[in-house]
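User: Working on a comparison across species. This one is Outer membrane protein assembly factor BamC from Gilliamella apicola. Can you predict its structure so I can line it up against the others?
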Amino acid sequence: MFDKTILHNYVVKKTAILTTIVSFFLVGCGSDQNYKREIDGNEDYLNSPALKPLIIPKGMSIPAESADFFIYKLDSKGNLGKQVDIRPPVVPIPTISDSFVVYNNGVVTFNSPLSADVWNKIPNTLNNRNIPISSSDNSTIKTGKAFIVRADEEQTVEASFIFERKIVGDTQTITVSLGSLTRGADDISSQPLEVQRYVVGLFNSLMDDLAPQSFREPLVKDPNENESKKEADKDAESMKRHKEDLKDHLNKK
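Assistant: Here's the predicted structure for Outer membrane protein assembly factor BamC from Gilliamella apicola:
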């Protein structure tokens, strides 16, 4: 006799096994961040055979060579294919009124009014990101090493940072630079793009914490704006016609 209980248990067990397998695949896909750093496409061209020398039959003339179409063979010494990081470099974005910022050679230089009180708010930003402060005074803040997590990296880095401040009149200039930067056992503090990514990233985190509420609220379009524009366009068109009529009237005299 066909036992429905046995069949039911078999189906349940098989479903549980398949669910577990699928969940492993989903976890693997969710943690794989390569798609954010690599070009996704067919790579069959990498297996293309090399071009053979052109064989000219006897008695056939060929055009004269032109340097305009000569393809020089270059030996690439950099990364190729999926080893190339396609992420754009990050740029510093100030959110404080009457301030400006530049990034150069691994250092963010930020100038702002003293009234913005940026310096005293740096410890809060560091604390929110679990970056310890090893020493601080009125002109320098040095952090200890901390793990920095990014959504587009599979392996975290360990970094330390240095903030320095100079006051001139009613403005202050704050610089942000690296103390150290390592990924695993590798020191990557000599890689310009990596340095920029983490130094500017921390600065932008500070600016995000200090951004006024108006930066966080979406711009609401005035419903009367279109009507006002239509009225202005109508007035302009009426004035244009009036000028043309006046000009024609004067020409007829």
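For your comparison, note: Residues 10-30 have pLDDT under 50 and may be disordered.

User: Helpful, thanks.
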